[in-house]
Amino acid sequence: MAPTRVPNGRGNKDSNGRQGTPQDDGFRVKVTTRFIILCLLSCTLLAYAVGKIARLILIDGPHQQLALIHEQQLSSLGGSYELSSTGNSRDHVMKLPNPVLKNKPIPNTIYTSMNFDTSRSSSINSRWVVVEESDSPPQILVPGTNQTCDADNVETCSSCSRGKEPVVIESSGEDHEEVHLPAGQHLLMDIRNVQSEFLASEERLATAMLDVVGDCGLTLLSYHCHGLQPSGVSCVGVLLESHVSFHTWPSQGVVTLDLFTCGSQSLLPIVEAVERLFGVPATSDGPETVWAYKVRGFGDETSAELADLFTFPIGTMTEYKKEIISITKKTDDIKRGRIDVYDVLRPTYQTFESYKRSLQNDNSYESQYKEIFQPDRILYVNGVLQSRRSAEVPYHEALVHPGMFAHDNPKRVLLLSCGGGAALREVLKHKTVEKVVMIEEEKQLVSITRELFPEYSDCSTNQGVASANCFDDSRVEVIYSDIFDWAEKENKGYTGDAFDVIILDDSYYVAGPAEYGDFTSLVSKMISDRGVFVAQMGQAPNLNLPSAKHSVMKNRFDFIESLPQFGFKSVVDYEEGHLGFSKPWQFVAAFRDYEMSRTNWFSPISHMDLVISQRIWPTKSGDSSLVHFDAATMQGYSHPNRASEVVFCRTHPDSTFCPEGHGFDPERPNVPATAFDVRASTLGENAGRGVFANEEISQFSYLTLDDAVHPVYFNPLCFDLVTKMVAKLGHEHKIQIMQFYSLYYGHVTSFHGRQESTVDSNRMCFLNHGCSGKSNLSMNLTVTESFDGSEIPQEFLRIQYRHGDEYNPAAERFPTSLTHSSPLRDLKEGEELFINYLAAVNANKWKEEIASLRDQCNGALGDVTAYEREK
Ligand SMILES: C[S@@+](CC[C@H](N)C(=O)[O-])C[C@H]1O[C@@H](n2cnc3c(N)ncnc32)[C@H](O)[C@@H]1O
Question: Average of pLDDT values for 300-314?
C-alpha cells in the first residue's frame, strides 16, 4: 500500500523557502474503508492468536498437568474418575448425586453465590436440590440400622428427626413446640485409617454426605465440592438447618467433618452414622474416630448440657469414647432428668495405642495388666459425673469407712441415695453390721448400675457375706421411695429403730434446692444417741472461694454449720483427692457422741490399723479387703484442708482461731529456756516450786519455743490406758507417777474426744496458777477461781472450745498439743510467771476443779506438794 500524495491546502515551500505551486504539494494518504476493515480483521486475528497461545502456555498447560497428575493418582488408587478422550478435566464424567426432596415443598430461600477463579481446582462441582414426587410418605433411615421410618410422623419416629434425643422413658404427656432460639448443635468428627480411594472420590464422599443428611432427617439444599491438588477434597453442604462440611487427606487416610444444625435436638446419635458412612476402613484395623460435641449459640440449655458430661467426654476430642446408655425422663423433675453411661479412655493416663495393645495376648505389659488400660466407665446423672469405675473403690471407701470407724460398734446402718450398691459393699465389710436399710428414690438407677457396673455390688469375695451380690444379703433391705415420703407415710415421722451410722451420697438434699433443714431434722430423728452421720458434699472448697454468704455453695455451708443445732456434738469435714473427679471431694461427718467418735476419729495409726484388722472381714482370695483406705489414710482425714479453714474464716472472721491464724511470727522474740529459773514459789510453801524470769522479758515474746514444740502428749487412748493401769495396779504402783505427771503437770483437754494431756517438756511445766487474776501469761480472762456460779461462763467456754459448739475447721487445724504461752505485759527480772489454770480445766468437772483451785489459792496444800510430801 503506497502513500497517496495529496495537495497541501496551505501550499508547500521548496527547499529555498519559496512557496510552491499547488501542483508541487506532497503525497496525500487515502484511507479506504476496505483498508480499515482489513486492519481490524487482522488485529482481531492477531489478538486471538496471542490469547490462545498465552492460555495454552499459562492456564491450560498447568491445569492439564494438574488434572493429569490427579488422574494418575486416582488411577493408582483405583478410583472411578474418567477423563474424556480430549483429556480435558472439564469433561470429567462424575456421577455426583443430587440432593433430593421427596414429597417436601421446596424451601423458600434466596440463593447467592460468589466464586473466585476456581480454574486451578482439579474439579469443581455443585449440586442443587431436586424435587422427586412420590405417593408414599417420605422415609428416613433410623441411624445405625437399615430400617426406615415415617418422617412425616416424627412422634413415632423420634430417633430420626434431626438426630434422636436420648431414649425417653417417661413423658409428661404434654407436647411442647420448640421455640426457635438462636442456638444449635455442633458435631465435630475426625476419622483416620480411612480408605484413600474413598477420600479422593467426590462421588463417594458426596453420597456419604447425602446419606448422613438423610439419616438425620435434615434438608440439604446444595453442596459444593472442590477436588484439590495435589490431593484431597473439600465439600460444604448447605442445609436448611445450617451446614455440613468436610475435608479429606486421601494419602493420610483422614477426613475431618463438622455438622452444625440449628435447634435443640441432639446430634449425638449421628456419630455412629457418620462413622459408618465416612469411616470406610483402609485396613482390617478399621477406622479410628475422635469426636466432640458442643451445644452452641444462645439457647435454652438443659442442666445436663451445662454439666460435666458436655465438657468431658462429649465436648472433648478424646481418643476413645462410647455411649453405653443415655436415657431421659421428660418430667419437670430436674433432680433426675437424665442418666448417661460412657466408656472412655482417660486422656491423661491412657492412650488408644496402649488400650489396643492390652487387648492382644502378646505378653506385653499392657496385655498383662489389661484392667489398667481398659476404658473407664462413667455414670452421669443429669450430666453430672456421679461415679467412675476407675475410682469408685476409693470413693466409696472414703464415704463409708471413716464414719463407720468413728462408731465403736455400728450395727444398724442407713444408706441414703447410695443406690449403686458400692456403699453397701463397703458397709458389709464391717463385722459389726446386723442391718442395712437403703432408701433409694431411683429404682432405675439401681438396675442400671447393677447391670452396667456389676462390681459395685459384688460381695463374692467378702468372707462375711453369703451371697455373691451384696443386695441379696439377708441383712439388707432396699426401699424405693423418697426419703421424706418414706419417713412420713410409713413411719409417721420416723418411729423405727435408730441407726448407728447414716450415710448420704447425694448433695441434692444439702446443696440443692431442697430444704436441708427438713432433711437434717429427719436424720436427727433416725440416728441413735451415739450415731454418726456422713454426707458427701461435692467438690471441696478451694482457696479462692468467697465467704458462704456470697457463695453459690451457700446452702452447703449453711447445712454443715446447722448440724450442731440438730444434736450433733462435733462436726468435721474431710477431703479426698483420689476419687476420679477433677478436684478433691469433700465429706462431712457429724457425731452425736463427742468422746467416742472423736477419740476414734483421731486414734493413732497403729491403733487404727488394729481396729481395721479386727473389724473388717477378710477376702476369700486373701487380697486386702480395703484398697485405698487404711489407718494412714484415716489420719490424713483428721485435719480439714486449709482451704476449708480459709473459706470458713472468710465467713466467720471472728470465730475461734480465725483472727489468730496459725504459725509463728518471726518478728516476735523467742526467749530461751536459760532465761528462766525454777525455785520456791512466792505463793507460799504449800504451792511448791514456780518459774521466775532471770532477765527482762518483753510482752508477747514466745517462751522457750524450741522446747515447747516437743511436749509430752498423752492422747486419749494413752491417757485412758494410764488411768486403767493405775486403777488396776493401785496408787502405790510406780505407774502412778505417769498419771500424776500427766494430770498435775499437763494441760488436760478433750480436743480429740476423751481426756488427753499435754505436758511441757521444759521448765515451763512448773508454772503456777495466778490467783485472783494475777496471771501474767497466756490469755486474759476476767473469770477467776473465786467464781462460784454453777453455769460455766461463756468466756471460758469460748477458750475451752471443744469442737462441739460449732463447726470450725480453723480450730480443728490448731496444733492442740502445743501449750506455748506469751507474757501479757513486759516482765521484770526476778518476777514469777503465772498462767490462768482456768483456761485448761476440764469443762465436765468445772465445779470440782474451780473449787480445788479456790482452796489452793486460799493456802490449801497443793496437789504436787502433797504428793511429794507423801513420798
Ligand atoms: C503444774 S504444777 C506447778 C509446779 C508445782 N508448783 C511444783 O512445785 O512442781 C501444778 C501444781 O502446782 C501447785 N499450784 C499451782 N498453782 C498454785 C497456786 N496458785 N496455789 C497453790 N498451789 C499451786 C499445785 O500443787 C498444782 O497441782
Answer: 83
